[in-house]
Write a structure and sequence with these properties.
The complex is a heterotrimer of chains A (385), B (516) and C (379). Chain A contains 8 helices and 23 strands. Chain A is an alpha+beta fold and 385 residues long. Chain A has 2 domains: 295 residues, Rossmann fold; 79 residues, Immunoglobulin-like. Chain B is built from 11 helices and 29 strands. In chain B, helix 2 packs across helix 3, helix 5 runs antiparallel to helix 6 and helix 6 packs across helix 7. The N and C termini of chain B lie far apart (83 Å). In chain C, helix 13 links the parallel strand 3 and strand 4. Chain C has 14 helices and 5 strands. In chain C, helix 3 packs across helix 10, helix 5 crosses helix 9 and helix 8 runs antiparallel to helix 9. The chains are: A alpha+beta (385), B alpha+beta (516), C alpha/beta (379). The interface between A and C is medium-sized, with 38 and 23 residues. Strand 12 of chain A pairs antiparallel with strand 1 of chain C, so a sheet runs across the interface.
């Protein structure tokens, strides 16, 4: 069974379905490559398995004691790249639990269990994360380990994400998050087909109030998503950072990650990462609702990454810079000399950004800034002395 | 505690437009309130507690507005704007074309206008429909150039679209943004496209409130229809499951203008109905028949609506036909935008993947860079590399200084601007060599380009030369000769307009770098 | 393309000094040129227009240029196709796929040229003969290459050296390359259909002008700001720094090979002959450079009016330079010969179907293979 964590009971909980596919039996480099042009063009992946395990570990390690929607269950299916019998494990509650591979049959059963658990309480949060190959035409097809087993019915073992999203509207869980970590490129081979029939898995139609169900795609339509083989995908890294705090607002005394902030946080992390030279460009896209339902309550104050500097840019290198917390006057961070913008991370809050020039080629200056999730990005205009 | 008035500098904004969503935070960054920022209107805030407060807003343009205040002592607060980091303006030649759907299909309409420009962007306006005509409200604006893919934005007539130049590096692409004529709707759509759903909700609620403050009109104009459609998208997204019947009526009235209205009516019917999707069938078929919807994300909604109906009624041929027609558009749409954005070469041939088509003949051309100028294209040049290098070698005893030409007279006809005259911009180092009073002006004359130099000691002026590279790639140089009280050089310039840059050759002063 | 063509390329370090920011900046972006070049032909179509015009076949049916070229030489058709397809590549992983397939195409082409057993020969003609349009040719070529690759062990493409993978179409496979090639064929067809015959040649001249004005600017800027031995200019500084690093990292038995294109070749020669004669380069390859012309104009710092003269008929070789190969193509207006002017240099006429413009040398699979063979075994 793909269930690695189950404490379902009758209260509002988070029920997660986490899938990571790196091993594809019938694609290029697989055990039995299929005789199909599309299948030959796709290969094995080194990052989805690691990423899915990281997301599952986050949930298991840090979301069990959430005060509002604690973790109720995790369905986990991971196919790590490598030989067919390579398997993963995850540490849960002090013991190591084997993780089953993400074949279609297993994922279909996992979806059924996930759905029925989500059904049990309208306050439930349905959490879906998929990482692996994705191809798109009008809808995105998420490819599972045994995709292309029968070239005559190529998409028999692929999941139609948007159809799944539409079908989940019939589920009573009023909050549903779909985190899709896959490419959405439209290969010309797909355009030539009359139909691309990936599996919807859920037939239902929504009845009654529609859930708060955003989809956060890793990339735009007909664009690619990237990962480091053996490491995390760019999106998984951004998602974990968003869940850790960048997607949070403070309301009623606590910082909460909500459905209307989490997508923006992921998008901002990716956007800033795009500016690092050598990083393949990727832009997240948020579709659907996002009404502010709570996904997670943070245990403390989130750290907010910042990028600060001076205008003109030449002044930045000459400057000694400090961040002083406005509330208590504490020095939070400083940099005395460096090259380029000052990058760092500081606890969310209001700060006095102070800039001093030892060599007196510019006039000292200060600026009030707010480290507000997801990012603080500011420039202090300075004048020559 | 008395209320605090929050305001900000609203340069270039029309009073009444919602330009963004702001948050009021306490000193712990606790969210106290969210509110829309309305141009020309200060916001009155009651803060029922002591302690410093913050107002923070991120506008869709990337500008941040921020201010902190003490609710006890401060009565008015002005938000300070922090613009986003400047992007280097890459010089690029672009083109833009408007398309219109006629009885024979899509064709270039040749009526797109440039209504504004900045170094890195240009504002394009689709002319509004003449009054009384409702069938022609949907247009396509296509922008391309620089060898890049040319996205096509589906917009309502009368829209203003901002095209931003491609940046250098891996992000090279034309970016299109809806900015008008309804800035409130544009703000809402831009927030949604960026994923800032919280801010979008604030603006959406305000838009809904404004619409509901008026009775539903039976014959709205296109602007009103567009507002209704955008507000209805917002209602659909925030899941207001039982919008009043008045919205159904509003959408029905708007449907004669925009396919989005039928599409939304279909989805609202689905939201209301607890039956299978047949109830929405008529609306979706109507939308598909009317054409391309304009709001960002709507194409996917249209496809999904038809897909649901098709699944419930697989025998329904009308639905299958409609699906087949919509399918290629859904496959070619770039969704993360405030408008429906298509890829492909023409609106009737959408296809995913990069397509850098030739501009239609009626396309308007523009040039972005440090100073944008829209211009025509003259004749192709010939080439003489040997002459160039020989000339250059002979003159290398001199010092070459590039000098910028600042236009002082520009003639504009329609979308075209030609520079008629200018002055040379001497940097301090050059002024030190020429003398502090040196100045020069440039104008076209019958003989070519006339450069008039003043304030330079005549002995020095006689040893100066000025040059430029012509459109044919030839380096042309001329000496300064006395002409009355001034010193003049004439370059054999035959191209249209003026060059942007000239080269001054200064005689050697002191020892030269050794050559052998 | 290097990683795909050369095994163990991880062991090779590649430095790419860029000095564009110090060179000519037409600060208003070629505004001194009429905008036509940029409006009617995209920057990419430029290279293609010149390439196609120089085949002498612009009157081909728009969708058969490759076919007709291939009938003369498959290798030339491959080079032209890859130049066109290179324009379709959108990012690093696209370029990587294309390069990988290009390496196979080059190897396949070389084998075909070298004369495979009769069966292979017949087989080659067979797949070629069945195609009636360029797109068909591309699809058949792709299938043929994949089948050929699968049937033999060979230089492994090096996906491990790519540090990012894409979670979708492009994941280590070659279908992306096929799509790019089809796109390239379509691009050629559009170019020929939209810009017919004489206009194509005129276009080629226009483009050459645009390129040349920037190039000229580079020349003037370099010559004006070259500086002295004591105070070298910015451009020189960058190049010298890179050469110093290369020298420092030189390990035992590891040669330093410098490949210089166009103006870069002129600058490297200036460095080796005057500014830093102490630097050692084992092999210098100048591609499309004007070193000979510059010496004739006596533009180098070390240029002496006494050469040619009674003492020396040619400029003596630089002390620090091992072997020097100057690659030029008659069709490239910016490439000049050197053998008559310098000692110790070999001119290498690139065997032409004349299918490239000044900047397309490096995109062509066969350029690299041929150059590699020319350099041969290093001492």
């Amino acid at each position: 069974m793909t269930t690695v964590f189950d404490r379902t009971d009758g209260v509002a909980q988070t029920h997660a379905l986490v899938i990571g596919v790196g091993r594809y039996r019938h694609l290029h480099g697989g055990a039995r490559p299929a005789d199909d042009a599309l299948a030959r063009s796709l290969g094995q992946l080194g990052s989805p398995a690691t990423s899915a395990l990281a997301v599952a570990r986050f949930l298991v390690d840090e979301h069990v004691t959430d005060p509002e929607v604690p973790l109720g269950s995790v369905e986990l299916a991971v196919s790590p790249a490598g030989p067919v019998d390579a398997a993963s494990e995850i540490e849960v509650g002090g013991g190591r639990v084997p993780v089953e591979p993400a074949t279609f049959a297993r994922v279909r059963d996992a979806v059924d269990r996930w759905f029925s658990r989500c059904q049990r309480h309208t306050g439930n949060v349905a959490f879906l994360y998929f990482s692996g190959h994705g191809v798109a035409r009008e809808h995105v097809a998420l490819l599972l380990e045994d995709f292309a087993e029968r070239p005559q019915e190529l998409f028999e073992h692929a999941v139609d994400l948007e159809a799944l999203h539409l079908g989940m509207a019939a589920c009573r869980a009023s909050t549903q998050c779909f985190f899709v970590d896959a490419c959405r490129s439209v290969p010309p081979a797909l355009l030539e087909r009359r139909e691309v029939r990936a599996r919807a898995l859920l037939d239902g139609w929504h009845r009654g109030p529609r859930p708060d169900a955003p989809i956060v795609y890793a990339t735009g339509h007909d664009e690619k998503a990237f990962g480091r083989p053996g490491g995390l995908t760019r999106y998984a890294d951004a998602l974990l950072r968003a869940l850790h705090g960048l997607g949070a607002r403070r309301e009623k005394g606590a910082w909460r990650v909500t459905t209307d902030q989490v997508g923006l946080a992921v998008a901002e992390v990716l956007r800033h990462g795009n500016e690092v030279p050598g990083t393949p460009v990727q832009h997240a896209q948020v579709v659907g609702s996002g009404r502010g339902s709570v996904l997670r309550v943070l245990p403390g104050v989130p750290g907010v990454p910042f990028r600060l500097g001076c205008d003109p840019a030449a002044a930045t290198d000459a400057a000694s810079m400090r961040l002083i917390a406005l509330r208590d006057g504490r020095l939070a961070d400083h940099r005395d000399g460096g090259s380029g913008d000052w990058l760092g991370e500081v606890a969310a809050g209001a700060y006095d950004f102070q800039v001093h020039f030892e060599r007196r080629d510019f006039r000292d200056g200060r600026l009030e800034v707010v480290a507000y999730p997801p990012w603080l990005d500011d420039l202090l205009p300075v004048e020559p002395a | 505690m008395s209320p605090v008035e929050i305001g900000w500098e609203a340069a270039g904004q029309r009073p009444g437009d919602v330009i963004g969503a702001a948050e009021l935070l306490d000193e712990h960054l606790e969210l106290l309130e969210r509110f829309p920022l309305v141009a020309g209107v200060t916001r009155s805030i009651e803060v029922g507690r002591a302690g410093r407060c913050l107002v923070h807003a991120r506008l869709p343009s990337g500008t941040t507005l921020l201010a902190s205040f003490d609710p006890v002592s401060d009565r008015t607060v002005t938000l300070r704007a922090r613009p986003p980091r400047p992007r280097p303006a890459e010089p690029v030649a672009g083109w833009a074309a408007a398309w219109r759907r006629g009885p024979d299909g899509w064709a270039p309409s040749g009526d797109l206008g440039i209504v504004g420009s900045e170094p890195d962007r240009v504002l394009l306006e689709v002319p509004p429909v003449p009054s009384g005509v409702t069938t022609d409200a949907v247009r396509v604006v296509q922008v391309g150039g620089g060898g890049l893919a040319a996205p096509m934005a589906v917009v309502a007539a009368g829209s203003v679209v901002e095209a931003t130049a491609p940046q250098a590096g891996p992000e090279r692409a034309w970016r299109l943004r809806l900015v008008g004529p309804d800035a409130t709707c544009a703000t809402l759509l831009e927030y949604a496209a960026a994923g800032d759903l919280a801010a979008a909700a604030v603006v959406g609620d305000e838009l809904v409130r404004r619409i509901e403050a008026q009775p539903a009109s039976l014959a709205p104009d296109l602007g009103e229809a567009f507002r209704v459609v955008v507000a209805a998208y917002h209602l659909l997204r925030v899941g207001d499951e039982a919008p009043q019947d008045a919205w159904g009526e509003r959408l029905a009235s708007a449907a004669s203008w925009l396919p989005d209205a039928s599409l939304l009516a279909g989805w609202l019917a689905l939201a209301r109905s607890r039956d299978e999707p047949e109830s929405a069938r008529g609306h979706f078929l109507d939308a598909a028949r009317r054409g391309l919807p304009v709001v960002g994300g709507s194409l996917r909604l249209l496809f999904d609506g038809l897909w649901l109906v098709n699944r419930a009624r697989p025998w329904d041929e009308d639905v299958q036909v409609a699906l087949a027609r919509v399918r290629p558009y859904a496959a070619a749409a770039a969704m993360a935008a405030s408008m429906t954005l298509l890829r492909g070469r023409r609106p009737d041939r959408p296809s995913p993947g990069p397509a850098a088509p030739e501009p239609p003949g009626s396309a308007v051309r523009f040039f972005l860079g440090p100073r944008p100028v829209a211009r025509r294209s003259p004749e192709p040049p010939a080439l003489d590399l040997g002459t160039l290098l020989r000339d250059a070698a002979r003159r290398l005893g001199s010092t070459l200084v590039a000098v910028r030409l600042v236009p002082t007279a520009v003639r504009q006809t329609g979308a075209r601007m030609t520079v008629q005259a200018g002055r040379l911009d001497f940097e301090p180092g050059l002024l030190r060599r020429l003398g502090g009073d040196a100045q020069a002006s440039v104008a076209r004359s019958r003989a070519g380009l006339r450069v008039t130099l003043g304030g330079v000691e005549p002995g020095l002026a006689a040893r100066l030369q000025v040059g430029t590279v012509s459109g044919t790639g030839e380096l042309m140089l001329a000496r300064f000769e006395p002409a009355g009280r001034a010193t003049v050089a004439v370059l054999a310039w035959t191209d249209a307009g003026l060059p942007d840059q000239l080269v001054l050759l200064l005689p050697p002063s002191g020892p030269q770098p050794g050559r052998t | 393309m290097l990683p795909a063509v050369v095994p163990d390329s991880d062991a090779i370090q590649i430095l790419n000094p860029l000095w564009g920011q110090h060179g000519a900046r037409l600060r208003w972006g070629h505004r001194s040129l009429p905008a036509a070049e940029f409006e009617s032909l995209g920057a990419v179509e430029e290279a293609l227009a010149v390439a196609v015009a120089s085949t002498g076949r612009p009157s081909s049916a728009p969708d058969r240029l490759l076919l007709e070229t291939a009938r003369g030489s498959v290798v030339d058709a491959v080079d032209l196709l890859w130049t066109a397809a290179g324009a379709e590549a959108r990012d690093g992983s696209d370029a990587g796929s294309l390069a990988e397939l290009g390496a196979w195409a080059a190897a396949y082409g070389q084998q075909a040229e070298a004369g495979e057993p009769a069966a292979g020969e017949r087989g080659r003609r067979a797949w070629l003969a069945g195609a009636t349009t360029d797109e068909e040719l591309v699809l058949r070529l792709y299938d043929e290459l994949v089948a050929w690759r699968d049937s033999r062990p060979g230089p492994a493409a090096a996906p491990a050296s790519r540090s990012w993978e894409a979670l979708g179409a492009a994941g280590g496979g070659l279908l992306d390359a096929r799509d790019l090639l089809v796109g390239g064929a379509r691009r050629l067809r559009r170019l020929l259909a939209d810009v017919a015959g004489p206009r194509l040649v005129a276009a080629a001249r226009r483009i050459a002008a645009a390129r040349t004005s920037l190039f000229l600017g580079d020349v003037l800027a370099y010559l004006a700001h070259r500086g002295t031995r004591e105070q070298p200019g910015a451009v020189l500084g960058e190049i010298v720094a890179a050469l110093e690093v290369a020298n420092r990292r030189r390990g035992p038995g590891e040669p330093v090979i410098v490949v210089a294109h166009s103006m870069g070749g002129n600058i490297v020669y200036d460095v080796l002959s005057y500014f830093r004669p102490d630097l050692r380069i084992d092999v210098l390859v100048t591609v499309g450079s004007q070193v000979g012309l510059f010496e004739e104009l006596k533009l180098f710092q070390a240029s002496s009016e006494d050469v040619p003269g009674p003492a020396a008929a040619r400029v003596p070789a630089c002390a620090g330079l091992g072997r020097w190969i100057n690659v030029l193509d008659r069709a490239d207006p910016l490439g000049y010969a050197t053998e008559a002017i310098f000692d110790g240099v070999e001119d290498y006429q690139y065997p032409t179907g004349s299918l490239h413009s000044h900047s397309a040398y490096f995109q062509q699979p066969n350029f690299h293979t041929r150059l590699g063979r020319r350099i041969g075994r290093l001492p």
